[in-house]
């Protein structure tokens, strides 16, 4: 407000100047009257008249010289006050000057009562010839002016039919009118108001500003991509060390005499360390002592102490949720995008956990709201962008254990996602994100039960009948979701109702070119074959022969898994029941704190226009709240058993977690 008051006088002066320039006389009078009533001063620097007294005097003198035929005075004023770029470059000015030279060349012939003064006339004709040979030569190829190049050489131009029009009074009047219009236009342009000048200047720079803005947006997008890549590599590194530590534990546990020598164990462990550590470790660490190798490996997991990551500013969530419900579709999309970015680009650890806890404690998605209008209902928005961005935000929530716990407190979210999954046919990305969220929901037992009861298995089987019509993401997450649901007794019994169709779909998927789905297909088959009726159906359709065909073509891991499936297929009722119980008893899900890069790698549908806020800048500018963020101790889940053996998957997993060695 202070800045506005400081510049108000100048702004009012600019408005007054423009109204005067555009000749809004009545509007200007009303404006000045209202400024006077309100006591608003107008800046003197911009309130002067646009009609410069000097320019007015020049115009009067020029027109007087035109009327009196004073050639020398006229062209002296013309060259002094009309800028050279206009005289030499403007076609209108060039044509006008040509006709003005004709006017002064024949002036004595038109206005002399008797015979004109020969010396004066010859001087004028000579001046005109010089003009034709110099500046006027540029128009010699123009049809309009070509006849006039003969004028200086005609003895009696007044009698010549080609020049008869020049000696009529109407021709002189029209020429004077053209001259007056030219002068008015030129001096009006030279007195262009500052407001118009500012606008024209901004219009010229706008494309460059938009280009720079687009480059900034692209740089921010690349920065986000690199941050995700860094986080993924860092997590993969820790996963690798963790797996190695478990491997070393297993090796140490199986050491009995000559089975694994300490020298072999030493060579394996030394190879896992960086080059800088190899020599010192090889000479200083006694790997024959029990537990030494795994202890050293776990020591390498200790995080390097980096500089403290600051907590993000708190937000006004009441205002945020109000605008998410009542704002325009474009504002809703930008807010959903910014909230998702805040979660996905935050630094893993305390910063991300604080962001997530703030979302949950303020019930950002209205999971606990009983209002008729809630943020969750944006999933049903008519705007494709709003639907997609809502699904992407929910998928980001579902990627984190605390986020899943928040979303799973009520089946309302699950029901809305299932409805959107079955109805969404316009936007593939929306459906993929809804499917991804549901797949992560299937890591939680109560939600598994609800999905099975809602018949989601039948929907999955139906879309998997034509896997080539699905994107890789949809295919992979559909099969993984199906496997997770088939690990439950209720899911297996549901499959038993359409055993033939389920077995056909799964056997077809065994040979699919997307090898990422093979562990889930194998896990689903292994699980449902614990049901006698499904085993009978499988035997009847020659499932063993089909499986043995893949043994010939598959890799070592695939072969071992298929061998387990064949054993399950040929198992008796008692053996299969033991397997069935052992699978059901292990339902604990490992907590994951990672955000899958595949869930976050979609392009953005909207880009901010010039001057439009987006991302963290939008949140901290328009929705900054009271600082309530406090650091919280990070809760760690108990380490689960990692899957890396030859058997088919027996626990609920999510594709992102399975590939990194963590079945969720």
UniProtKB/TrEMBL annotation:
Residues 58-188 form the ARMC9 CTLH-like domain. InterPro entries: ARM-like, ARM-type_fold, ARMC9, ARMC9_ARM_dom, ARMC9_CTLH-like_dom, ARMC9_LisH, LisH. Residues 635-664 are annotated as: Disordered. It comes from the Eukaryota. The keyword Cytoplasm applies. Keywords: Cell projection, Cilium biogenesis/degradation, Cytoplasm, Cytoskeleton. Transmembrane segments: none annotated. The gene is ARMC9. Gene3D superfamilies: Leucine-rich Repeat Variant (1.25.10.10). It is found in: Cytoplasm, Cytoskeleton, Cilium basal body; Cytoplasm, Cytoskeleton, Microtubule organizing center, Centrosome, Centriole. One of its GO terms (cellular component) is centriole. This is LisH domain-containing protein ARMC9. PANTHER family: LISH DOMAIN-CONTAINING PROTEIN ARMC9. One of its GO terms (biological process) is cilium assembly. Residues 451-570 form the LisH domain. Interacts with TOGARAM1, CCDC66, CEP104, CSPP1 and CEP290. Interacts with NDUFAF2. Its main location: cytoplasm.
């Amino acid at each position: 407000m202070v800045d506005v008051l400081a510049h108000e006088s100048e702004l009012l002066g600019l408005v007054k100047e423009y109204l005067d320039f555009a000749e809004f006389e009545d509007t200007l009078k009303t404006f000045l009257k209202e400024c006077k009533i309100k006591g608003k001063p107008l800046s003197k620097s911009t309130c002067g008249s646009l009609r410069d007294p000097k320019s007015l005097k020049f115009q009067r003198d020029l027109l007087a010289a035109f009327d009196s035929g004073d050639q020398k005075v006229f062209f002296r004023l013309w060259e002094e006050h009309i800028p050279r770029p206009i005289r030499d470059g403007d076609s209108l000015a060039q044509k006008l000057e040509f006709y003005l030279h004709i006017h002064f060349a024949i002036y004595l012939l038109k206005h002399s009562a008797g015979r004109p003064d020969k010396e004066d006339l010859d001087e004028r004709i000579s001046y005109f010839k010089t003009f034709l040979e110099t500046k006027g030569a540029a128009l010699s190829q123009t049809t309009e002016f070509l006849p006039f190049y003969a004028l200086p050489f005609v003895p009696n131009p007044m009698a010549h039919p080609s020049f008869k029009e020049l000696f009529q009074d109407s021709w002189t009047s029209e020429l004077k009118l053209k001259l007056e219009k030219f002068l008015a236009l030129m001096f009006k342009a030279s007195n262009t108001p500052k407001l118009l000048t500012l606008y024209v200047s901004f219009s010229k720079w706008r494309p460059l500003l938009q280009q720079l803005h687009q480059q900034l947006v692209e740089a921010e997008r690349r920065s986000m991509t690199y941050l995700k890549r860094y986080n993924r590599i860092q997590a993969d590194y820790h996963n690798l060390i963790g797996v190695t530590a478990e491997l070393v534990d297993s090796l140490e546990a199986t050491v009995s005499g000559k089975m694994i020598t300490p020298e072999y164990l030493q060579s394996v462990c030394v190879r896992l360390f960086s080059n800088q550590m190899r020599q010192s470790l090889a000479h200083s660490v006694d790997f024959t002592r029990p537990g030494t190798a795994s202890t050293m490996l776990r020591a390498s997991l200790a995080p390097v102490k980096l500089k403290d990551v600051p907590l993000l500013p708190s937000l006004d969530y009441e205002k945020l949720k109000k605008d998410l419900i009542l704002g325009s579709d474009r504002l809703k999309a930008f807010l959903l995008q910014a909230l998702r970015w805040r979660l996905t680009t935050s630094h893993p650890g305390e910063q991300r956990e604080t962001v997530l806890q703030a979302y949950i404690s303020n019930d950002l998605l209205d999971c606990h709201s009983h209002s008729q209008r809630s943020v969750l209902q944006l999933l049903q928005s008519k705007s494709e962008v709003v639907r997609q961005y809502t699904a992407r935000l929910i998928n980001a929530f579902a990627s984190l254990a605390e986020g899943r716990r928040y979303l799973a407190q009520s089946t309302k979210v699950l029901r809305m996602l299932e409805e959107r999954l079955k109805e969404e046919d316009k936007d593939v990305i929306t459906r993929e994100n809804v499917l991804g969220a549901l797949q992560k929901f299937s890591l939680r037992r109560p939600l598994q039960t609800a999905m099975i009861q809602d018949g989601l298995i039948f929907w999955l089987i139906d879309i998997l009948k034509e896997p080539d019509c699905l994107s890789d993401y949809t295919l992979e997450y559909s099969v993984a979701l199906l496997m997770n649901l088939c690990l439950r007794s209720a899911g297996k019994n549901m499959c038993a109702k359409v055993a033939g169709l389920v077995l056909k779909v799964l056997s077809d998927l065994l040979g699919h070119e997307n090898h990422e789905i093979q562990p889930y297909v194998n896990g689903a088959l292994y699980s449902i074959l614990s049901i006698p009726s499904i085993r009978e159906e499988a035997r009847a359709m020659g499932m063993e022969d089909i499986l043995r065909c893949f043994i010939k073509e598959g890799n070592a891991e695939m072969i071992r898994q298929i061998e387990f499936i064949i054993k399950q297929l040929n198992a008796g009722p008692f053996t299969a029941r033991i397997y069935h119980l052992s699978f059901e008893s292990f339902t604990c899900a490992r907590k994951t704190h990672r955000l899958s890069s595949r869930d976050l790698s979609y392009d953005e549908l909207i880009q901010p226009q010039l001057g439009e806020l987006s991302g963290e800048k939008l949140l901290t500018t328009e929705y900054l709240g009271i600082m309530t963020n406090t650091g919280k101790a990070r809760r760690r889940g108990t380490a689960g058993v990692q899957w890396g053996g030859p058997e088919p998957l027996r626990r609920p997993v999510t594709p992102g977690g399975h590939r990194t060695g963590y079945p969720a």
